[in-house]
């Protein structure tokens, strides 16, 4: 079976003795299927990408301290790879890109002890408009090459680039600094949300799933300009969730995970920490053809509020 990462979101019921319960009313089918009809468009509707090439190393790519792409598998990248990143750009201005480089994989998830001298990682930040800009005509705004020293087991490289987007997303910008909270409590709260999300899929509870992911999907749809009438629109979003739920045979929580902090402490996630699924989410679903992993990135909108999914 082929693994597939699905970055869906959830907001969850928290422990009543710690945080105020979420009283948001359930999202209706009409509301969910109307997401693309509410997208604002402009003279130029850009999608930003990282286009990168990795050789003899494994890596993680962060945009504004959010995990955008990673690989701990064997082999080199087959030519230039790309990762769309508009969902991590909340507004125009300077954006941070961080690259973490690790040794080459001996087998998926198992790395050599040290980086090789021959290892290389280079990347470009580009933008263009889907359906209008030719792939080779995207405009480049930055280029980087990570300086790699042999003999080290990790290298971290940071730089910035400027992005101009015609929208502004609330995202996690005003969220609470979760790094100041008790880690054990955060793990329990995050695990509860992951369990709730998995249960909703197991029970084919489409209303709960749609309600859990609604806020996040609206921001994602705007950042990608998923317009009504186009293939990736939400016009039949409710039905797509139903179809996906119907295809799932098993869904479970992987028990080997760590609590990760993102967005300078404002976002957390439970991710697997070792083996061939390193950095994968803890929710694993199985269909006839593949494994599906659901990533839940949570933030706390204000002090005392329950954690919610944001990306």
Q: Explain this structure to me?
A:
- 18% of the residues lie in helices and 32% in strands.
- It is built from four helices and 18 strands.
- It has helices at residues 29-33, 183-202, 206-224, 237-247, and strands at 2-6, 47-55, 57-63, 66-71, 81-84, 93-103, 105-107, 110-111, 120-128, 139-145, 155-163, 250-253, 258-262, 267-271, 283-286, 290-294, 298-299, 308-309.
- Helix 3 (206-224) packs across helix 4.
- The longest helix has 20 residues, at 183-202.
- The chain is globular.
Strands, helices and their partners?
Blueprint: E1 2-6, H1 29-33, E2 47-55, E3 57-63, E4 66-71, E5 81-84, E6 93-103, E7 105-107, E8 110-111, E9 120-128, E10 139-145, E11 155-163, H2 183-202, H3 206-224, H4 237-247, E12 250-253, E13 258-262, E14 267-271, E15 283-286, E16 290-294, E17 298-299, E18 308-309
Helix pairs in contact: 3-4
Summarize the structure.
The chain starts with a strand and ends with a strand. The protein folds into two domains: 179 residues, no CATH class; 117 residues, no CATH class.
User: Strand order, biggest sheet?
Assistant: 1-16-15-12
Count, helices: 4
Global mean pLDDT: 92
Number of domains: 2
Number of strands: 18
Computed over alpha carbons, the radius of gyration is 20 Å
Residue stretches low in confidence (pLDDT < 50, at least 5 long) are: 7-17
Residues in helix, %: 10-25%
Main sheet specs? 4 strands, mixed
């Amino acid at each position: 079976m082929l693994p597939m990462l699905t970055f869906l979101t959830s907001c969850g019921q928290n422990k009543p003795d710690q945080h105020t319960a979420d009283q948001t009313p359930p999202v209706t089918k009409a509301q969910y299927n109307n997401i693309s009809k509410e997208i604002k468009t402009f003279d130029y509707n850009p999608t930003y990408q990282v286009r990168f090439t990795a050789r003899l190393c494994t890596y993680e790519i962060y945009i504004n301290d959010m995990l955008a792409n990673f690989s701990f598998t064997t082999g080199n990248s087959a030519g230039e790879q790309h990762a769309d990143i508009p969902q991590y750009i909340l507004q125009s201005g300077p954006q941070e890109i961080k690259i973490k480089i690790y040794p080459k994989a001996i087998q998926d998830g198992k790395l050599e002890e040290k980086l090789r001298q021959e290892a290389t990682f280079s990347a470009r930040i580009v933008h263009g408009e889907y359906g209008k800009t030719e792939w080779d005509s995207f405009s480049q705004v930055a280029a980087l090459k990570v300086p790699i020293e042999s003999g080290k087991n990790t290298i971290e490289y940071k730089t910035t680039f400027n992005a101009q987007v015609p929208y502004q997303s609330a995202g996690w910008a005003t969220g609470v600094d979760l790094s100041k909270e008790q880690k054990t409590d955060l793990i329990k709260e995050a695990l509860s949300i992951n369990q709730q999300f998995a249960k909703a899929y197991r029970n084919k509870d489409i209303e709960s799933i749609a309600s859990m992911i609604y806020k996040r999907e609206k921001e994602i749809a705007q950042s990608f300009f998923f317009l009504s009438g186009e293939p990736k629109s939400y016009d039949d979003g409710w039905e797509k969730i139903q179809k996906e739920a119907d295809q799932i045979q098993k869904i479970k929580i992987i028990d080997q995970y760590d609590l990760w902090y993102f967005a300078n402490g404002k976002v957390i996630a439970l991710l697997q920490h070792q083996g061939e699924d390193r950095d994968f989410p803890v929710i694993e679903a199985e269909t006839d053809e593949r494994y599906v992993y659901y990533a839940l990135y949570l933030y706390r909108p204000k002090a005392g509020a329950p954690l919610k999914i944001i990306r």
